[in-house]
């Protein structure tokens, strides 16, 4: 006991030291973690997000606290990025909140292998299997044990279109194949539009192109080999071809001449599409609400959406999706036994409860829940978008989690960095593969 | 008298006119020749005495040393301990979660072979030198202008100082949007060349960053020079006028030489400052496009908090720190401002 306490103290000091110096030297104003979120007795703590789609989840905490005066859940909300920076320090120093929020992927793997989160199989396996769509539920399992319980909306990357712009350029429908997409790019360019809006300044939108192309060309095995860390997995011909196709698109002027600095956080890409300056935008389903805010007329009449086109001769299935799966709750190992029980009980009662499902649908989010077709349909605003997302996710042959989350952090960052250089044509597809193989 | 308080007292009258930022202490009246001359006459004797008492380590008479405790505790807790921590971390492997394992000089070897670090090093040097070279002349001229008594000077000065009041994040977001090729000023007013993709073109990104950094920090450094120019005794200018020197000659023969120590102090601030630029670059462009603006502090942040390579990030942190300390020491030595001789003999 003493040993672990000491180790904890050392790690806490190290965490504070690292954050403090790194941030002081960089004169950064962001507040590093390190503050304790530990609860006492049967009380539990949770850090959640401030996004509007989280309103229904926040409501469940309020309801819970009214019903359980002896086992309060103290909720603190954070903006997305500051949460991501805070949570790892908190977990590493043994001061995690009882309920740990994640996006699945390598962080959950890290938490699990470091025994920072506990096995929830016996308590919640049946709940999750019964309620959640398989592709989303699967991400919560490590070593066949349930360690992360899905929460929130499902967010696949969608090929958004501006139907009015496409029509103006003489394009009748969203492209079904890669060659059609290339044709459409040429037509849009002739019509004086930016064919495809791409928020390259944020870097991660590049990943959607890479993930879809690799899968459409080589099928899911290629990416699986990479995720398994197989030697030279990035040299797969499908990866090389995908990178070549990306550079073909860049050469064709598909992304215009300003994609490198456009930021997805500023919604510059969605604004280009909504304002009729661009024809396509490959972006997560979460921007649906933004389109309405930027240009309500457009969202109602001219907004189109389609699956990423198939590649001729490719092995992949065009129903495959990439993007964010959902958020996930884990229960911290550092929390007291009673707090953990409170958290588990909360999850049992509130995993996609009716209140959360209805709330999500109301805010334009699609919950990855089995058998809610009717609910989705009745929540639809007439554009059919919610049904489209729900059906795509339900019918997807494979749902690849965003690569930067799925891959271990250092590999994910290297991928963002190298992929950007592919888009900027600073490196060749072969150089990309070589650089990425080194990270495996 | 303690060595600490004594040296401080000796140094202050000389250092203050050169470095003070506070507008109240730079009012022209406070530097009448009479108030300066007496202290400037005996600096060498006093600093000898200070050095002596340092050696003998005699106890002090002045205010209790406990007065320094709050500052020392803060410095220790928020600067020294983390510093030592990072130095130790630079010899370990740690992902922020698991156990911290010692791995000798592994990180150091790895970082010095990392093309990203080398690229960041090069960019940081360029950013530092160019932003110093751009800002210094502008700041000296602006500072001299603002120290004068021309009509509208105070009114204009307010505008020069405005950027100083904005948070760098706000500045970064504003410039990012102004320079946006699709939604920025260039597009809005139909000015073709201005609608260039300044931040998205790897060739112009770093220069754009230098421009915004300069815009942001010129007010502060101009303020320093303004204070320094006001410290220059009017008698010098009067004498020069009698000797027939015009304003330009006066600027080069009196103002510039008299700004020597301010120049040293300000250059140190500017250079050490540019070694640690982070927020502006991070918010504006995040190191892109294609690592064109991935300077050392940004590289450190991305390594530490995105790749969770705490060991590698700590190495970069230590490099930045060493660079900063080395530059300050060298500048201090070269400029001779560690001696701080009076420049006002005969004033």
From TrEMBL, chain A:
Residues 1-30 form the signal peptide. The keyword Ribosomal protein does not apply. Coiled coil: none annotated. Keywords: Signal. It comes from the Bacteria. PANTHER family: ARABINOSE-BINDING PROTEIN-RELATED (PTHR43649), BLR3389 PROTEIN (PTHR43649:SF14). This is Extracellular solute-binding protein.
From TrEMBL, chain B:
PROSITE patterns: ABC_TM1. Pfam families: BPD_transp_1. It comes from the Bacteria. This is ABC transporter permease subunit. It comes from Bifidobacterium colobi. It is found in: Cell membrane. Residues 121-331 form the ABC transmembrane type-1 domain. The keyword Protein transport does not apply. SUPFAM superfamilies: MetI-like. InterPro entries: ABC_transporter_permease, MetI-like, MetI-like_sf. Residues 1-60 are annotated as: Disordered.
């Amino acid at each position: 006991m003493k040993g672990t306490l000491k180790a904890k103290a050392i790690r806490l000091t190290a965490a504070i030291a690292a954050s403090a110096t790194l941030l002081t030297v960089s004169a950064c104003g962001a507040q590093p973690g390190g503050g304790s979120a530990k609860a006492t007795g049967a009380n539990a703590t949770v850090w959640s997000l401030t996004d509007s789609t989280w309103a229904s989840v926040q409501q469940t905490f309020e309801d819970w606290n009214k019903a359980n005066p002896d086992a309060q859940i103290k909720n603190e909300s954070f903006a997305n990025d500051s949460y991501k920076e805070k949570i790892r320090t908190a977990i590493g120093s043994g001061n995690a909140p009882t309920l740990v929020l994640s996006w699945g992927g390598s962080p959950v793997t890290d938490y699990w292998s470091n025994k920072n989160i506990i096995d929830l199989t016996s308590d919640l396996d049946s709940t999750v299997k019964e309620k959640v769509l398989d592709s989303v539920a699967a991400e919560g399992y490590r070593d066949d044990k349930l360690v992360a319980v899905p929460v929130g909306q499902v967010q696949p990357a969608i090929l958004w279109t501006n139907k009015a712009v496409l029509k103006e350029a003489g394009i009748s429908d969203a492209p079904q194949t890669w060659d059609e997409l290339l044709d459409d790019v040429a037509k849009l360019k002739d019509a004086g539009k930016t064919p495809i809006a791409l928020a390259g300044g944020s870097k991660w939108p590049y990943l959607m192109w890479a993930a879809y192309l690799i899968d459409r060309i080589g099928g899911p095995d290629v990416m699986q080999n990479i995720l398994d860390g197989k030697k030279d997995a990035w040299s797969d011909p499908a990866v090389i071809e995908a990178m070549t196709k990306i550079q073909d698109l860049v050469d064709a002027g598909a992304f215009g001449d300003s994609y490198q600095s456009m930021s997805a956080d500023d919604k510059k890409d969605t604004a280009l599409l909504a304002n009729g300056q661009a024809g396509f935008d490959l972006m997560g389903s979460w921007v649906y609400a933004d389109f309405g805010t930027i240009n309500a007329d457009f969202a109602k009449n001219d907004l189109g959406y389609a699956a990423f086109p198939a590649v001729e001769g490719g092995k992949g299935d065009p129903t495959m999706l990439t993007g964010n799966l959902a958020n996930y709750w884990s229960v911290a190992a550092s929390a007291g036994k009673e707090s953990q029980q409170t958290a588990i009980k909360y999850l049992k009662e509130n995993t996609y409860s009716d209140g959360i499902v209805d709330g999500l649908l109301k805010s334009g989010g699609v919950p990855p829940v089995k058998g809610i077709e009717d609910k989705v349909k009745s929540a639809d605003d007439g554009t059919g978008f919610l049904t489209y997302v729900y059906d795509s996710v339900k019918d997807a042959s494979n749902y690849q989690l965003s690569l930067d989350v799925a891959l271990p952090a250092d590999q994910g960052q290297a991928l963002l960095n190298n992929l950007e250089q592919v888009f900027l044509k600073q490196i060749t597809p072969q150089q990309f593969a070589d650089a990425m193989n080194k990270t495996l | 008298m303690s060595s600490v308080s004594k040296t401080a007292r000796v140094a202050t009258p000389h250092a203050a006119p050169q470095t003070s930022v506070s507008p109240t202490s730079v009012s022209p009246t406070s530097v009448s020749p009479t108030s300066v001359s007496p202290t400037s006459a005996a600096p060498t004797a006093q600093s000898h005495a200070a050095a002596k008492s340092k050696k003998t380590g005699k106890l002090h008479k002045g205010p209790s040393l406990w007065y320094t405790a709050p500052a020392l505790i803060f410095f220790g807790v928020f600067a020294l301990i983390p510093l030592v921590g990072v130095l130790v971390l630079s010899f370990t492997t740690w992902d922020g979660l698991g156990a911290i394992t010692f791995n000798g000089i592994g990180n150091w070897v790895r970082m010095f072979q990392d093309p990203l670090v080398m690229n960041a090093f090069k960019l940081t040097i360029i950013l530092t030198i160019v932003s110093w070279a751009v800002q210094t002349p502008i700041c000296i001229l602006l500072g001299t202008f603002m120290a004068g008594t021309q009509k509208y000077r105070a009114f204009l000065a307010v505008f020069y100082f405005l950027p100083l009041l904005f948070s760098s994040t706000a500045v970064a977001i504003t410039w990012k949007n102004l320079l946006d090729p699709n939604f920025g000023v260039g597009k809005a007013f139909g000015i073709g060349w201005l609608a260039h993709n300044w931040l998205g073109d790897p060739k112009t990104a770093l220069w754009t960053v230098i421009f915004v950094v300069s815009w942001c920090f010129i007010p502060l450094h101009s303020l320093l020079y303004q204070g320094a120019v006001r410290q220059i005794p009017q008698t010098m200018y009067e004498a020069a006028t009698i000797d027939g020197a015009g304003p330009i000659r006066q600027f080069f023969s009196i103002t510039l030489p008299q700004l020597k120590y301010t120049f040293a102090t300000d250059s140190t601030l500017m250079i050490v400052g540019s070694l640690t630029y982070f927020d502006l670059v991070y918010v504006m462009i995040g190191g892109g496009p294609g690592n064109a603006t991935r300077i050392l502090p940004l590289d450190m942040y991305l390594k530490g908090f995105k790749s969770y390579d705490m060991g590698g990030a700590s190495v970069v942190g230590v490099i930045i720190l060493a660079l900063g300390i080395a530059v300050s020491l060298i500048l201090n030595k070269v400029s001779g401002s560690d001696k701080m001789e009076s420049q006002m003999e005969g004033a």
